TrEMBL record:
Catalytic activity annotation: Fe(II)-heme o + 2 A + H2O = Fe(II)-heme a + 2 AH2
UniProt KW Plastid keyword: no
Localization, UniProt: Membrane
Protein name: Cytochrome C oxidase assembly protein COX15
Source organism (scientific name): Daphnia magna
């Protein structure tokens, strides 16, 4: 009706007396028809206000690192993986030279090496108070002690260098925003594992310094279980560093999932488990043989 009245009014088909009446009628109908729409608009505005924070939250989710950032992260973690491999090699040499128990004290941030002759003699006297010297290496001279001491010192300092190589770049990359939320969690986990590895190393050495070796038949050695745990955690760190490094250096490609690919993936994981168990069981076996006097 409103449309018809406006049409007649525009076409001058109504007489002048009728125009005020139609004008009032149009205004009343406009008010009554506008109010519900206004209410609907107000309700929509309320929903819009509640929706805005959700939209803002979705937009501000951390994005994946760029290609150049991924390369830097991959190189950094690849370096950490290589240093973990080096730590395993140095640890093996330290064990072969029977140098692991030459340092009888431990500090989280490093020990100052002896600089003078008096310092070396003082360090040598400390070593003489423990079972390895009394039962196994009694009579070694100061020069021989210096060699085994430097082997263990190098092993410990290499571990601390790994920690510095991980923590310093991680802090820089974190500040620059190179890490997304998933990678931040991994970095925190890896840092915790590195710290635990250092503590586990001292816990292992401490088992060989305990006063539980009394007869000449007793061979002062670290606990084979603690040694296996120390080596196993090094393998885990190496695997995690290498896996994450390759993930950033070699971008993932979309591949068709087939039965052959699934079987190959399972075979790879199975092989990794076999290699890990072989290494751990080997270190347990050689330690038991050396304790029984049948190992070289």
């Amino acid at each position: 009706m409103i449309v018809v009245a406006k049409f007649l009014q525009n076409q001058n088909l109504l007489c002048n007396p009728m125009r005020p009446y139609l004008r009032n009628m149009c205004q009343r109908n406009f008010v009554t028809t506008f109010k519900p729409n206004h209410l609907k608009l107000s309700a929509f505005s309320k929903h819009l206000k509640t929706f805005k924070p959700l939209t803002r939250h979705v937009v501000t989710v951390a994005e994946a690192p760029t290609l150049q950032q991924s390369k830097w992260i991959g190189r950094w973690l690849g370096t950490c993986a290589g240093m973990c491999f080096g730590a395993v090699v140095i640890g093996g040499l330290t064990r072969l030279t029977e140098s692991g128990l030459s340092m009888v004290e431990w500090s989280a941030f490093g020990e100052r090496p002896p600089l003078s002759q008096e310092d070396w003699e003082r360090e040598f006297e400390k070593y003489k108070q423990f079972p390895e010297y009394k039962l196994l290496k009694k009579g070694i001279n100061l020069e021989e002690f210096k060699f085994i001491w430097h082997m263990e010192y190098g092993h410990r300092m290499w571990g601390r260098l790994i920690g510095a190589m991980f923590v310093i770049p991680a802090a820089i990359f974190w500040k620059k925003g190179y890490f997304n939320s998933a990678l931040k969690k991994r970095v925190l986990i890896y840092g915790t594992l590195i710290g635990c590895q250092g503590l586990l190393g001292w816990y292992m050495v401490k088992s060989g310094l305990e006063d539980r070796f009394h007869g000449e038949a007793d061979i002062p050695r670290v606990s084979q279980y603690r040694l296996a745990s120390h080596l196993g955690s090094a393998f885990v760190l190496y695997s995690l560093f290498l896996w994450t490094s390759l993930h950033h250096l070699i971008p993932a490609k979309v591949m068709e999932v087939s039965k052959a690919a699934i079987k190959f993936k399972r075979l790879v994981h199975f092989s990794k488990g076999i290699v890990f168990l072989t290494a751990i069981s080997g270190i347990l076996l050689i330690t038991i043989l050396r304790l029984s006097g049948r190992g070289n």
